[in-house]
């Protein structure tokens, strides 16, 4: 799939996620922790992507190592930003980070955040994040 197509799908998903959070009563004026997810089977590539994300102004957490069912190893990290849940900011970040992923030959796995409000909606009590 082309980067343009992947970006278009991500931008549509951004709108859906933000709308779902707002529909559930999440605070539109709050500052959110936005975690952009990256993964790769190649640690060196992932490390270069983390450095690039840091240079773009994102906080970067330590890479985690996950053993998959087939015995292979997957490395992952999050590039973290703190800002209001505004589609324009998310779109800009997603475009930057998807291009970074293509450049470093790693996977950009979307983003997630946490519900911010007085209380979780009753039917979503078991789900704290949306991605």
From TrEMBL:
UniProt keyword list: Cytoplasm
Domain Regulator of ribonuclease activity B: start-end pairs: 12-113
This protein's record includes keyword Cytoplasm: yes
Signal peptide bounds: none
Primary localization: cytoplasm
InterPro entries membership: RraB (IPR016716), RraB-like_sf (IPR036701), RraB_dom (IPR009671)
Entry-linked Pfam families: RraB
Subcellular localization, as worded in the UniProt entry: Cytoplasm
Chain segments annotated as coiled-coil in the UniProt record: none
Entries under NCBIfam families matching the protein: PRK11191.1
Family named by the database record: Belongs to the RraB family.
Function: Globally modulates RNA abundance by binding to RNase E (Rne) and regulating its endonucleolytic activity. Can modulate Rne action in a substrate-dependent manner by altering the composition of the degradosome.
Summary of subunit composition and partner proteins: Interacts with the C-terminal region of Rne.
Cited HAMAP family: RraB (MF_01888)
Protein name, entry field: Regulator of ribonuclease activity B
């Amino acid at each position: 799939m082309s980067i343009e197509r992947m970006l278009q799908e991500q931008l549509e998903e951004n709108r859906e996620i933000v709308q779902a959070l707002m529909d559930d009563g999440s605070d539109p004026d709050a500052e959110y922790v936005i975690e952009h997810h990256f993964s790769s089977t190649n640690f060196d590539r992932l490390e270069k992507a983390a450095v690039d994300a840091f240079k773009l102004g994102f906080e970067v957490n330590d890479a985690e190592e996950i053993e998959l069912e087939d015995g292979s190893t997957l490395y992952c990290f999050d590039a973290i930003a703190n800002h209001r849940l505004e589609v324009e900011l998310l779109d800009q970040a997603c475009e930057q980070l998807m291009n970074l992923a293509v450049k470093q030959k790693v996977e950009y796995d979307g983003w997630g955040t946490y519900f911010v409000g007085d209380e979780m909606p009753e039917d979503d009590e078991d789900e704290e994040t949306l991605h």
